[in-house]
Design a protein that fits this description.
193 residues, mainly alpha, globular
Length: 193
């Protein structure tokens, strides 16, 4: 299933596929760190490595075949954009580029501060979990943050911020908030009058 989704994403939006592939690589690094500290996880880590390498490898092979059969190459497009769009971190540009992207570039996607706040809370909640899914989402955010840090043009901000799983994080934040408030209300209703 992962392989099919990977190829589908590659053909539908190459930028998302490359963020996905880099997130899988970062995920593999996080899982490797766990396996080094706990040798019992080593066998499972080998299985994950095979799955990730096969998924990314097949995606790159499909892209290579695509570039041979047509003038379109996702890899070529992404690599040329990366070469022209990334540079050394520039704090001044980082702040102005981020402000421009949030206010104008994405058409107001991030104007909903409640969504952004819930997503931030959801990400913090996610950090408490020690699972493969949480490691993958942490890897995804890491990849986006690194690309934003080295951004040289607004395009990088737009792509990185837009491809983050805001809905997943805000859903986790909302669930946490509801359970937190529900817990407090339950004990208030249960108190003797």
């Amino acid at each position: 299933a992962l392989l099919g989704i990977s190829v589908f994403v590659l053909f539908s939006h190459s930028w998302t596929w490359f963020v996905f592939a880099l997130s899988l690589a970062m995920f593999l690094f996080l899982e490797w760190r766990l396996a080094v500290h706990n040798r019992g996880l080593w066998g499972r880590f080998k299985e994950k490595t095979i799955l990730v390498v096969a998924t990314v490898g097949v995606g790159l092979l499909v892209d290579l075949l695509r570039s041979v059969l047509s003038p379109v190459s996702s890899s070529g497009s992404v690599v040329s954009t990366i070469q022209s769009s990334l540079g050394f971190p520039n704090p001044g540009y980082l702040l102005s580029g981020m402000s421009k992207t949030v206010d104008f570039g994405l058409g107001g996607v991030f104007v909903n501060q409640l969504l952004v706040a819930l997503a931030f809370i959801g990400f913090l909640v996610l950090l408490r979990f020690k699972s493969e899914v949480s490691n993958f989402f942490v890897a995804w955010v890491f990849v986006a943050c690194v690309s934003i840090l080295f951004a040289g043009v607004d395009l990088v901000f737009n792509r990185a911020l837009f491809m983050l799983p805001w809905v997943v994080f805000s859903g986790l934040g909302l669930a946490f908030f509801i359970s937190f408030v529900g817990y407090r209300v339950y004990f208030l209703d249960d108190s003797p009058v």
